[in-house]
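Re: the request from the purification team.
They wanted to know what the chain is likely to look like in 3D before they choose a buffer screen. I agreed to run a prediction and write the result into the notebook, where they can find it.
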Amino acid sequence: MDQRWAVRPVMVRTGLEAAQDLMQRVRYVLLDFDGPICDIFAGLPAPEVAARLRRMLKSAGVTIPEHVQRQDDPLEVFRFSASLSEELNKATSDLLTALEVKAASTARPTPGALDLLRDLHKKGKPVAIVSNNSAPAVAAYLETAGILWAVKHISARASKDPRLMKPNPYLVRQALYHLEAAEDATVLVGDSTTDMEVCKSTNITAVGFVNRPSKEEALAAAGADLLITSMTELSGPE
């Protein structure tokens, strides 16, 4: 491959200079959705979505285990649904997708994210969104934000099998395939430990987005090569 694009991961780094140095060398960019691009559940809170999924399952006669009852993350309720019948799993998947699409209409943009997408497109660096949120929700948000044109591929939840979600490398490998991207010329920006873990299993550089101070230690421990506190750090000079 063209060595000028090679990204050589280093020990965890921080700061604007480190971020811009990385982005000058990288060729392909994968972005998680909820966090790096927007707060999808800003207007329709995740705990409310999780509760609506549980109510649907309870109305179907499902006994909800205590650990699922306490869950505020709707994706974890979806994971639980896979242990039920195929019909209930599908119903959970369908309702979750519908609620995510609804949430996308009131999502709060992450500062600097849309400018970053424009910047990467201008520089000819292909972008894919890699998300455990549903593909229709990601597409709906990007279209409403008027930035869908800057994203070459959306590799997001389309299957009713939660085992294919990150940290499973399935979605990342799908994105690499569609971008025709070399692993050592690619970074993934995410705000969760599962994002860092999937980077390690696919040999791509991990950028941890510390959008809450409490995440810094966990992202570093999970294998982040670079930590940022703002998406604006990734928009480099012309």
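For the purification team: The first strand starts at residue 13 and ends at 14.
Please add any questions underneath this entry.
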